[in-house]
Design a protein that fits this description.
The chain is mostly helical. About 80% of the residues lie in helices and about 0% in strands. It has helices at about 1-10, 10-15, 20-40, 40-45, 55-80, 85-100, 100-105, 110-135, 140-170, 175-180, 185-195, 215-220, 225-235, 245-250, 260-280, 285-305, 310-340, 345-375, 375-395. α8 packs antiparallel against α18 (about 345-375). The protein is globular and about 50 Å long.
């Protein structure tokens, strides 16, 4: 009893298992690599390769949808095998192997292929990794554990663009060189996962393997899971790719060398809000907390639509980052809590598939609206859809 009492007074971050920290650093290194590329890729595709806004939207949407569709099968496979780490290593490894394609690409077709294969790697690793976090995390620290992993992931997401800014200045805007340097942290990520993450002993399900879309398997996920998944998928229809934030920066006159600063600002706010949001969510009603997290997104869209200057743009980007910090780890925590333990991989996979399809529609639609009616209309439409998701959360909570 004495030891238990002493443990309860330890800071929350010190009670989070080492395996969660290692998974977080795995995400950090991969995000450094990915965001060094992603911070420059939209401008590179439009400026160097001649892509239209609509094509950028389709590429981003298809890429994320590929990742999402892959996640449902990798998640189910991890449930059946009772092993998550092996699939996570394959996913991160595939993403690392695709990174050299970006600097070698000499056409938009090669860039599309690299982006799509990279997202397949993300799809393979995503659901097993999230299920592995849920397996390792103590139940009373699940929100904090997902928040910590998300925070470390997002630290990488702003360190990557910061490195891109510095390297753009030092290399006289040599984007291909920066793409080559991004290869290094990708392989560091795989090394951390292999060497530092120990998978807990799990029991392979005694049930025979079934397709993830069979009625019996989907029914076992439960009504609470489907309610959260429906609302979160609706919200995903509003959340088009952050590539459009980068393109919006050109509308407000930001110099190309500073383009990666968009992701730096967004991800700084994202990183520093994710972990505290997870800690708070363990102590309050999580659905209410998720509803609160949608509000900054609606405000971000309205600011980005109606504030033409750099200051308004910066505020909009910060609000976008805040909504990510308040919602993304929390959605993962809610999914982990609403499905049986031996179906966590399937639960994450199905959610990620549905949200990925929604992101495809959102990104492709945003690109078309942008080309036809301008950026303001694009952000207003996003705010409207997000408001519907907010209403859904408020109705569910009552």
């Amino acid at each position: 009893m004495k030891n238990g009492s002493a443990a309860s007074f330890r800071p929350v971050w010190r009670r989070i298992p080492a395996g969660i920290w290692a998974i977080g650093f795995t995400s950090l290194f991969m995000d450094i690599s990915s965001e060094m590329i992603h911070a420059l890729l939209p401008v590179y595709m439009v400026g160097a390769m001649g892509a239209s806004m609509a094509l950028v939207g389709v590429i981003e949407g298809v890429a994320e949808s590929i990742a999402a569709i892959t996640k449902v099968f990798s998640g189910t496979l991890s449930d059946w095998l009772g092993r998550r780490k092996r699939l996570a290593v394959i996913g991160y490894g595939l993403a690392a192997l695709t990174k050299p394609i970006f600097p070698l690409a000499d056409s938009i077709g090669w860039l599309m292929a690299a982006r799509f294969i990279d997202r397949i790697g993300k799809g393979i690793r995503g659901a097993p990794r999230d299920a592995l976090v849920a397996d390792i995390a103590p139940p009373d620290l699940r929100g904090a554990s997902f928040g910590l992993r998300q925070s470390l992931d997002t630290v990488g997401a702003f360190v990557g663009p910061l490195l891109a800014i510095a390297l753009m200045a030092l290399s006289s805007d040599n984007i291909r060189l920066i793409f080559w340097i991004a290869v290094i942290p990708a392989f560091m990520c795989v090394a951390v996962l292999i060497l530092a993450v120990k998978e807990p002993e799990t029991t392979r399900s005694a049930r025979p393997a079934k397709p993830p879309f069979s009625r019996s398997e989907l029914g076992r996920l439960g009504a609470a899971y489907w309610r959260i998944t429906f609302i979160a998928t609706l919200f995903s229809l509003a959340r088009f790719s952050e590539a459009f934030l980068i393109l919006k920066s050109q509308d407000v006159g930001l110099a190309m060398v500073w383009t990666p600063a968009v992701l730096v600002v967004m991800n700084l706010v994202y990183a520093f809000s994710s972990y505290p949001a997870g800690v708070v969510a363990d102590r309050v009603n999580k659905v209410t907390a998720l509803a609160v997290g949608v509000v900054p997104f609606v405000l971000a869209d309205l600011v980005l639509a109606f504030s033409p200057g750099l200051m308004g743009f910066a505020i909009g980007v910060m609000l976008w980052g805040l909504h990510l910090g308040l919602t993304q780890g929390l959605i993962a925590s809610l999914i982990a809590e609403t499905v049986p333990a031996n179906l966590r991989g399937t639960g994450f996979g199905v959610y990620n598939m549905l949200s990925g399809v929604a992101l495809l529609v959102a990104s492709a639609g945003a690109g078309l609206i942008w080309d036809m009616a301008g950026s303001a209309t694009t952000f207003v439409a996003s705010a409207g859809i997000a408001t519907l998701a907010l209403i859904g959360l408020l109705v569910q909570n009552h």
